[in-house]
Amino acid sequence: MKTAITSKGNTLESKMDQRFGRCKYFVIYDTDSKHTEFILNPNADAEEGAGPASVQLVASQGVNKIISGEFGIKIKSLLDSLKIQMIVIKDPDIKIRDIIELLNH
Amino acid sequence: MTPRLKKARKILNPPTIKGLKPYGLEAGKKGLSPLSLLYEEYEAIRLSDYDRLNHHQASIMMDVSRPTFTRIYASALQKIAIALVEGRQIAIEGGKVYFDSDWYRCSNCMCFFNHPEKETELAGCPLCGHETIWRYDQDDPHIGEYFESDICICTHCHYEHKHQPGHPCNQQLCPECNSLMKRKGTPGCI
User: Fold this and answer.
1) How far A63 CA sits from the closest chain B CA (Å)?
2) How far is A44 from chain B (nearest CA, A)?
3) How many whole angstroms from its chain centre is CA B31?
4) N or C: fewer beta carbons within 10 Å in chain A?
5) What pairs with residue B154 in β-bridges?
6) Does B165 touch chain A (CB under 8 A)?
7) Tens digits of per-residue pLDDT, A60-90?
């Protein structure tokens, strides 16, 4: 099971990015192999359509859960049709390490 | 010129069955192919005839225009009539749709999540695995307050502190007397 987390930086100590489409990095975490991968988001500075482009990027990684602070209106129907689960954490100070610990419950 | 793209229709509840079969002596003898009733046509019938909404209300539920809804509904009725008269099977499949999903909230880590795979039962919080989850209703402000005011309480000396999302109360030790703590208001605590 792969999970994508939006991140502000490329270390485990970085904070989660509250935005989905324009986050700096995506963290792809595999709950089975405990492997973590950081992907730079090329859509971070896009003027328009950052959300759907990011969905495409994340979906191509075979993710079935996405953790972020907020999802735009264009995203929800897309993710629903791809059967990707959205998880929203309303805590701007949570670190990537904390989220991975939660996932390893 | 390419034709205008079809707008995706919103489906609230996927059908519980995959189709219907006729019965009786003549059923299935002629080897007729099953009719495919699209998901959006099923939803149109459900909203209009089962939930008894008018076409205007139903079109809003499906996120299409009222005339489009009426066309979908008419095509659904046509297909059902054909199936009934010719004794053909109905297979509910296909269509340009997306499923609108409900939101839930975990009582432990306070995260919100949805559940896109309606066929499978929701086992617990997808983040922390905690089993207590609430259906989140945006129109009910009371739910939010309840979560914010969660307090961990020591069962021994009654010491209290604010609940930290992601840290189960019953795994915490009281800083005063080192005994186990519990969520205030749950059975077993004072």
Assistant:
1) 14
2) 24
3) 37
4) N
5) B181
6) yes
7) 989 988 999 888 766 876 787 788 888 888 8
Residue B126 touches chain A, beta carbons under 8 Å: yes
pTM attached to this predicted model: 0.53
Q: Tell the residue number behind the tokens 């539920």, with chain if given.
A: B61
Give the pair of three-digit tokens for residue A59: 């979906």
Backbone angles phi, psi at B45, to 5 degrees: -65, -45
**Which residue of chain B has the CA closest to A104?**
B128
- Look up residue B24 and give its two tokens: 């009786």
pLDDT in tens, B60-116: 888 899 999 999 999 999 999 999 998 889 999 888 887 665 678 887 887 888 877
CB distance B116 to A71 below 8 Å? no
Q: How far apart are CA A72 and CA B41, in angstroms?
A: 28
ipTM of the prediction:
0.80
Of B8, B111, B117, the CB nearest to A88: B111
Q: Is B62 on the interface with A (CB under 8 A)?
A: no
B143 interfacial to chain A (CB closer than 8 Å): no
Nearest to A102 by CA among B99, B110, B161, B139: B110
User: Residue B44 and residue B37: Cα distance in Å, rounded?
Assistant: 11
The angle at the Cα of B166, spanning A40 to A4, to the nearest 5 degrees, equals: 20
Q: Whose structure tokens read 């086992």?
A: B123
When pLDDT is averaged across residues B167-187 and rounded to a whole number, the result is 77
B98/A contact by beta carbon, under 8 A:
yes
Pairing type for strands B9-11 and B97-99 reads: parallel
Q: How sure is the predictor about B187, in pLDDT bands with cuts at 50, 70 and 90?
A: low
Look-up of token digits 């939660």: A102
Beta bridge partners of B113: A87, B104
- Taking the mean position of all CA atoms in its chain, how far away is CA A91? 15
